[in-house]
Design brief:
Length: 226
Amino acid sequence: MTSPEVAPYRRRRLARGLKRALDVVGASVGLVVTAPVLAVCALGVYRDLGAPVLFRQTRPGLDGRPFQLLKFRTMAPPPVGLSDAAALASDGDRLTAFGRRMRSWSLDELPSLVNVLRGDMSLVGPRPLLMKYLERYTPAQRRRHEMPPGITGWAQVNGRNARTWDDKFGFDLYYIDRWSLWLDAVILARTLGKVLRREGITAPGAATMPEFTGREVDHSVATRVG
């Protein structure tokens, strides 16, 4: 999956090791600092939806290798027998009021800090999407797996779910090709502002993000930004 011209993450071994060390420190501090918030969120999910309080789903990580993503549950399960498309269309109805509040502050993402500690994810990187998308990617889109997925990323601080799939893949490629520890620091700083302003939480006219059905990347997005 690596591009002909090796991207910075593959090329810079020392910086890659430092990124991992910063991930471990950042995730550890994050879990300690947000422990009271984690407890409140867990109790709120249990009150609304019962056990389990965590949402677990297999997602593709570095080089497309699967791992179990952890998040807080925010919606009731779809009725039995409902198709994937129908289940996605019902997302708005299945979201609980507490789940909606958690999503508005991105608190449902906090358990993913455990994924960072495990090495499944990084604090910063392309967001982990669905396993079924792997077969729908173009070669360019597949390059998003040249780095570990992140809790936040360049696409998240440039519009998040308010952007189209083509835009988001373009931002992912921009990050892959220009990665540096400084860029990670910029993204983390911008993420804090985005969370506080609660921007880009949902796609226009949808409770979540529409399904990716397979389209070409608009490469011009990657070259226009930054």
